[in-house]
């Protein structure tokens, strides 16, 4: 089945609003654009939810799509005065649930066995000069981390590396000649792991790379993005 992109759904809505504006400006019909926007803006939220549901890559994206779709429909029904839903109760449940999920994500999953490096409202860069991979945990809290493993001294065998981005970003570059495996989860953020990407309220994905060389080295990344983003790309 062909994937239906979110751009397609949003394009249809923008096209319809444009046609309404054109008809109004030509005097063919007297359409209140302001009234249309104030009433029907939840359609964009609904389109976002449908896009996740139609193109989901994980169970997490399905849950995100359902939640966003529910919010869009609730706002639309309220604007149409068909059904007034008390959304304040929904949000009272939403944030505690997010905090619980964040706590669970920290308590579960594998970790690197080495020491950790933190970028707190600052930055860590290792992308121009040779460096030794003696730290297997990297945390970006309202900061940024850039690591280029092309210049890293990587031990033979498998090395597990834990990446956590909280309201921050982590950019990783890995050479194509070594094996790489990526596993990640995201809460209110985004992941781009080699050939796969995901994002939303709650989502998860995984990706891998078979090295082009004869290297016995392997990097395994365990990624966690919370209101932040992690990107892992393969380079020559």
From TrEMBL:
Q: Which residues form the LiaF transmembrane domain?
A: 9-111
Q: Where is the Cell wall-active antibiotics response LiaF-like C-terminal domain?
A: 121-232
| Key words, A-Z | Membrane, Transmembrane, Transmembrane helix
**Entry's Pfam families?**
LiaF-like_C (PF09922), LiaF-TM (PF22570)
Spans traversing the lipid bilayer: 7-27, 33-55, 62-83, 89-108
UniProt protein name: Predicted membrane protein
Task: List the source organism.
Answer: Alkalibacter saccharofermentans DSM 14828
């Amino acid at each position: 089945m062909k994937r239906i992109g979110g751009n397609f759904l949003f394009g249809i809505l923008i096209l319809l609003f444009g046609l309404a504006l054109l008809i109004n400006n030509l005097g063919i019909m007297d359409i209140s654009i302001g009234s249309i926007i104030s009433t029907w803006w939840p359609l964009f939220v609904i389109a976002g939810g449908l896009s996740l549901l139609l193109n989901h890559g994980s169970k997490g994206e399905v849950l995100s799509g359902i939640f966003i779709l529910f919010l869009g429909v609730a706002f639309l029904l309220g604007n149409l005065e068909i059904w007034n839903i008390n959304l304040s109760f929904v949000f009272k449940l939403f944030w505690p649930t997010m905090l619980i999920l964040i706590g669970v994500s920290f308590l579960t999953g594998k970790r690197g066995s080495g020491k950790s490096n933190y970028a707190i409202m600052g930055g860590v860069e290792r992308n121009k000069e040779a460096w030794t991979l003696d730290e297997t945990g990297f945390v970006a809290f309202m900061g940024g981390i850039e690591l280029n493993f092309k210049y890293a001294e990587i031990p033979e065998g498998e090395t597990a590396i834990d990446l956590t981005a909280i309201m921050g970003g982590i950019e990783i570059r890995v050479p194509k000649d070594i094996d790489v495996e990526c596993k990640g989860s995201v809460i209110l953020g985004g992941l781009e792991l080699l050939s796969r990407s995901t994002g939303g309220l709650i989502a998860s994905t995984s990706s891998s790379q078979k090295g082009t060389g004869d290297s016995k080295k392997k990097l395994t990344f365990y990624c966690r993005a919370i209101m932040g983003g992690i990107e892992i790309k393969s380079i020559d």
